[in-house]
């Protein structure tokens, strides 16, 4: 009986400290923050090798409850289509979880499958100590681990792309950032050019600022190459086009469709496919 009474007392005290619901601890409210992109947004892209359509990539944002705290999850899923799948199948999954207030990442994972190439990695961030812990999971079960220092402004590639949607990009300007790729920090120089019109199948011609990042690293869409991206000049600042010149061919990514919340032209004026 004494043991039962002690358990009941402990439960009562715990209930005073942490309110409970029928299924467990009370779920905290989502952060009330002004984000540069909507949660629930889905961006669909078509991938081309030269003029041949070879696959699709889908980017999606969502709320993620982790350890009773809300974070923003951003994921990219890239796959080859039937034209290329038999010759060089690609199935890449890249995901980052970021703090809603700072837009800094707390965890970044990549699972890349391209032909015989396989890569499974996770990087977790300790911003109190400005450390990143990188892990590479090999197919034989071995795990490589590396811990290194990171600057307050450093971000993985995906969180950096969405962080930049909060930035003005005036023509003929240059910015420098630190980007984390695999187990290394890269100095990324972002150079803006002039506004150009990008022709999108479902939206017509969209005014987009051309941006030339100067760095070479494994990315979300492609492995390596000289890259140029185009970002829409409307408040959403969506990536409308990406081009990479590789030793084999020119790889191009074009925005196909925008889904999710919103009442702007991306949602209301899209032509049905």
Molecular structure report:
With 273 residues, this protein is mostly beta strands. The chain has one domain (2-268). It has four helices and 17 strands. It has helices at 2-17, 82-85, 157-163, 265-268; strands at residues 20-21, 24-25, 42-49, 52-66, 69-80, 91-98, 105-114, 117-126, 131-137, 143-149, 155-156, 174-181, 184-200, 204-214, 226-232, 239-245, 250-259. Strands 10-9-8-7-6-5-4-3-17-16-15-14-13-12-11 form a 15-stranded mixed beta sheet. It has a two-stranded antiparallel ribbon with strand order 1-2. Mean pLDDT is 85; it is low at 1-22 and 218-223.
How would you classify the helix and strand content by structural class? mainly beta
Q: Can you write the helix and strand succession as a string?
A: HEEEEEHEEEEEEHEEEEEEH
Mean pLDDT comes to 85
Backbone CA Rg: 22 Å
Largest sheet: 15 strands, mixed
Q: What percentage of residues falls in helices of 4 or more residues?
A: 10-25%
Task: Count the E strands.
Answer: 17
Shape: globular
Number of helices: 4
Percent of sequence in beta strands:
over 45%
Q: What is the first-to-last residue Cα distance? A: 69 Å
Total domain modules: 1
Unreliable spans: 1-22, 218-223
The largest sheet has its strands arranged as: 10-9-8-7-6-5-4-3-17-16-15-14-13-12-11
């Amino acid at each position: 009986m004494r043991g039962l009474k002690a358990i009941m007392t402990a439960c009562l005290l715990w209930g005073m400290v942490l309110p409970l619901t029928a299924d467990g601890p009370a779920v905290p409210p989502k952060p009330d923050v002004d984000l540069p992109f909507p949660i629930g947004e889905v961006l669909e892209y078509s991938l081309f090798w030269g003029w041949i359509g070879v696959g699709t990539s889908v980017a999606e944002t969502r709320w993620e409850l982790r350890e009773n705290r809300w974070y923003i999850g951003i994921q990219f899923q890239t796959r080859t289509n039937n034209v290329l799948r038999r010759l060089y199948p690609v199935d890449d999954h890249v995901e980052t979880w970021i703090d809603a207030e700072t837009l800094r990442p707390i965890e970044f994972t990549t699972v890349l499958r391209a032909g015989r190439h396989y890569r499974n990695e996770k990087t977790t961030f300790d911003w109190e100590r400005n450390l990143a812990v990188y892990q590479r999971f090999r197919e034989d079960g071995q795990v490589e681990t590396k811990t290194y220092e990171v600057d307050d402004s450093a971000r993985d590639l995906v969180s950096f792309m969405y962080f930049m949607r909060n930035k003005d990009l005036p023509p003929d300007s240059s910015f420098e950032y630190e980007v984390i790729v695999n187990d290394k920090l890269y100095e990324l120089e972002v150079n803006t050019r002039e506004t150009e019109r990008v022709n999108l199948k479902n939206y017509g011609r969209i005014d987009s600022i051309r941006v030339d990042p100067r760095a070479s690293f494994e990315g979300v869409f492609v492995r390596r190459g000289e890259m140029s991206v185009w970002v829409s000049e409307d408040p959403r600042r969506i990536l409308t086009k990406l081009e990479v010149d590789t030793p084999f061919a020119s790889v191009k990514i074009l925005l196909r469709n925008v889904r999710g919340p919103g009442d702007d032209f991306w949602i209301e004026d899209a032509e049905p496919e």
